[in-house]
Write a structure and sequence with these properties.
By secondary structure, the chain is α/β, with parallel strands linked by helices. The protein is 25% helix and 25% strand. The chain is built from 4 helices and 7 strands; from the N terminus they run E-H-E-H-E-E-H-H-E-E-E. A 7-stranded mixed β-sheet has the order 1-7-6-2-5-4-3, covered by helices on one side. A hairpin with a 6-residue loop joins strand 3 and strand 4. Helix 1 crosses helix 2. The two termini are 16 Å apart. The structure holds adenosine-5'-diphosphate and magnesium ion (MG). The site of adenosine-5'-diphosphate has 20 residues, from helix 1 and helix 2.
């Protein structure tokens, strides 16, 4: 469990996580709006050596960042109505593909996440800090 006191600290945690990432890894991000999920993804993408701009794929469902050591497939399930919408764009190919998949709001459709996914939970504390809880793989 980590406490982040600033946006920069949140992206630094993503950078640190990026160092250990391997092809096929799946990161399932959970937590309310504004808790730092997209900021963490910025750190991951930067940490993999990409200078691609990271923005929330809320309306487009998927953003791909290809400038780094591994491609990053960035999903956001916030606006999806059913898991079928994610499966229809080929989610499984991205999950078990050549890169790293990072999914915001993954808990909306827990059932389509692989059992190997690493769950990372983001919470806003009353003082504005974020608690970021990276759970061990099950
Ligand atoms: N620890 C922190 N303290 C203050 N602001 C933060 C912190 N972590 C992230 N932020 C900022 O909070 C805002 C919302 O973060 P964002 O990553 O877009 O949230 P989410 O994707 O969970 O909705 C952004 O402006 C981000 O830079
Ligand atoms: Mg977001």
């Amino acid at each position: 469990m980590c406490i982040s006191h600033s946006a920069a600290e949140t992206s630094d945690l993503g950078r640190a996580r990026a160092r250990q990432l391997q092809r096929g890894d799946v990161l399932a991000l959970t937590g309310e709006l504004g808790t730092g999920k997209t900021q963490f993804v910025k750190g991951i993408v930067a940490g993999l050596g990409s200078s691609d701009e990271v923005t929330s794929p809320t309306f487009t469902l998927l953003h791909e960042y290809r400038g780094g050591q591994l491609p990053v497939y960035h999903f956001d399930f916030y606006r999806l109505n059913s898991p079928d919408e994610a499966l229809a764009i080929g989610l499984d190919d991205y999950l078990f593909g050549d890169g790293v998949a990072v999914i915001e709001w993954a808990d909306r459709f827990h059932g389509i996440m692989p059992s190997t996914a690493e769950w990372i939970d983001f919470k806003l504390k009353s003082n504005g800090a974020r608690v970021i809880d990276i759970r061990v793989r099950s």
